[in-house]
């Protein structure tokens, strides 16, 4: 059977399988590359963020990119396969675990070290090392937000940009706790529900999460960066990520149809944007 016939549609499913013990990395790598060549990231959860990256870079694959809070390195790997040459990732993951991620990356075919651990305070990079920083689903975990933004500013080039995509506190469903509205309440009430209905204690969620309203982040961004542009309304009104949407697709499609109604749709989109994940583009 040819590799073309074995290639799957969704790269995220292949990526998950690559982390299972005993799997043929070579075969899966070929499937992943074929999937991305055929569909790009259209079927991936990362499709929307990738579309913004492609637009910001104007297709220039030599742009120096930092994935700040890279986790297991999925976005970075996709970008490398799609031709971006200068992409590195950093996270507070312990060094032994990060070494394993680098080893997987090497098995995929990229010999250069791409993933780095850091102490959560200072990035292990020189000033002005990057032209673009991407940060996806990270800020809700950051407690020292001002320090995080300050380090972004330090390692960005003079005309650099940073793209942040994250849930804010007004998003009604918290994907981390899998609970509706509980994070709206004061700490004492939240703790009661977390302790009663979740295996992890409230102390664990306190360490993991720091959900804040959007104006909290804007306050610090205004102090550190020259320009902040919200892409949230653009993202939710276009709904380019429908193929990877995990919620109730019928309701989301209905909301989308309402959003594209002239004038009224604009008001609805602006109002609802406060209750969706936030996407911001900042410039020095």
Account of the protein in words:
By secondary structure, the chain is α/β, with parallel strands linked by helices. Among the domains are: 39 residues, no CATH class; 152 residues, Rossmann fold (3-Layer(aba) Sandwich), CATH 3.40.50.150. The chain is 44% helix and 16% strand. The protein has a seven-stranded mixed sheet, sandwiched between helices. Strands 6-7 form a two-stranded antiparallel ribbon. Helix 2 runs antiparallel to helix 3 and helix 7 packs parallel to helix 10. The N and C termini lie far apart (51 Å). 31% of the residues are buried.
Summarize the structure.
Helix content is 44%, strand content 16%. The chain has helices at residues 3-6, 11-17, 25-39, 47-57, 74-81, 95-108, 145-155, 187-197, 202-208, 214-224, 232-238, 249-259, 264-272, and strands at 64-68, 86-91, 115-117, 130-136, 156-166, 173-174, 179-180, 227-230, 278-283.
